[in-house]
């Protein structure tokens, strides 16, 4: 897995669903090797922002750039081919396929067949699930399925990885193991990680920097310890 060194930036993103303005003028950057947390109350626009940053949704206004290259208008496959991979809040593994096959499909979707087996095994190994390669994905524990999802993203050899609630449903031990793996992805491989999670303890422990959304707007940005003391952030969380 060879990351390049490009930063992702979003400029003045707006997303309208009919009359609802779900995201209002959000700008952010994600650098290689950085772990950035995206937090905020339910419905504040976190998933919508992640969807725009990964080509799942086209922004109503604004731009998404990888270094100086425009990604706006591209689909999620084109984002993945440029090194931006993601997981979803709900698990999307093919339950009738083996764990290996699930990850292989992802490896093949962004690169040609050469080296796909190696990329697949490397991704499974990174996530500590290589020993489960021949199991049906549907037979895995919940935590292992979540790891399988991240392995699928890693098989695309991303330089940037977006995770939507990666620890949802995991127990504390599984969450701690996941944190260790994510930290290694950022430090060993230089992967930039953008992560949405409700577990603020996880966010505080793992993230180098945090962005807070409320009602579609970016209301705070900075170190986790500083951001959570800001009155606007406290009010946003207490107001719900
Ligand atoms: P979060 O991830 O912070 O919980 P979302 O990004 O899922 O927030 O949602 C932000 C707002 O946009 C919410 O009001 C939600 O109901 C609305 N929304 C999200 N996706 C859609 C959609 N596809 N169509 C209409 N409204 C949507």
TrEMBL record:
Q: From the Swiss-Prot or TrEMBL record, what is one GO molecular function term? A: L-isoleucine transmembrane transporter activity
Where in the cell is the protein located? Answer: Cell membrane
Q: Which domain of life is it from?
A: Bacteria
Q: Which UniProt keywords apply?
A: ATP-binding, Cell membrane, Membrane, Nucleotide-binding, Transmembrane, Transmembrane helix, Transport
Q: Is-annotated flag, keyword Membrane?
A: yes
Q: Which residues form the ABC transporter domain?
A: 8-240
* Keyword Transmembrane part of the UniProt annotation: yes
Gene Ontology annotations for the cellular component aspect, listed alphabetically? plasma membrane
Any one GO biological process:
D-alanine transmembrane transport
Q: What is this protein called?
A: Amino acid/amide ABC transporter membrane protein 2, HAAT family /amino acid/amide ABC transporter ATP-binding protein 1, HAAT family
Organism field: Cohaesibacter gelatinilyticus
Q: What is the lineage of its organism?
A: Bacteria, Pseudomonadati, Pseudomonadota, Alphaproteobacteria, Hyphomicrobiales
- Identify the segment of the full-length protein shown: 352 to 591 of 594
């Amino acid at each position: 897995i060879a990351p390049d060194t490009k930063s992702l930036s979003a400029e003045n993103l707006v997303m309208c669903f009919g009359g609802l303005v779900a995201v209002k003028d959000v700008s952010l950057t994600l650098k290689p090797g950085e772990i950035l947390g995206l937090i905020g109350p339910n419905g504040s626009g976190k998933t919508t922002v992640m969807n725009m940053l990964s080509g799942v949704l086209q922004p109503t206004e604004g731009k998404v750039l990888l270094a100086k290259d425009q990604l706006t208008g591209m689909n999620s496959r084109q984002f993945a081919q440029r090194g931006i991979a993601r997981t979803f809040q709900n698990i999307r593994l093919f339950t009738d396929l083996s764990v290996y096959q699930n990850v292989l499909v992802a490896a093949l979707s962004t690169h040609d067949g050469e080296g796909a087996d190696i990329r697949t095994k490397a991704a499974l190994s990174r996530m500590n699930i290589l020993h489960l390669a021949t199991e049906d994905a549907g037979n895995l524990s919940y935590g292992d399925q979540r790891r399988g999802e991240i392995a699928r993203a890693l098989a695309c050899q991303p330089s940037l990885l977006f995770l939507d609630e990666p620890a949802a449903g995991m127990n504390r031990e599984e969450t701690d193991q996941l944190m260790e793996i994510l930290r290694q992805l950022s430090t060993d491989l230089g992967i930039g990680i953008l992560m949405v999670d409700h577990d603020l303890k996880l966010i505080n422990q793992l993230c180098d920097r945090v962005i807070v959304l409320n009602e579609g707007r970016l209301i705070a940005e900075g170190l986790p310890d500083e951001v959570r003391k800001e009155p606007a952030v406290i009010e946003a969380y207490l107001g719900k």
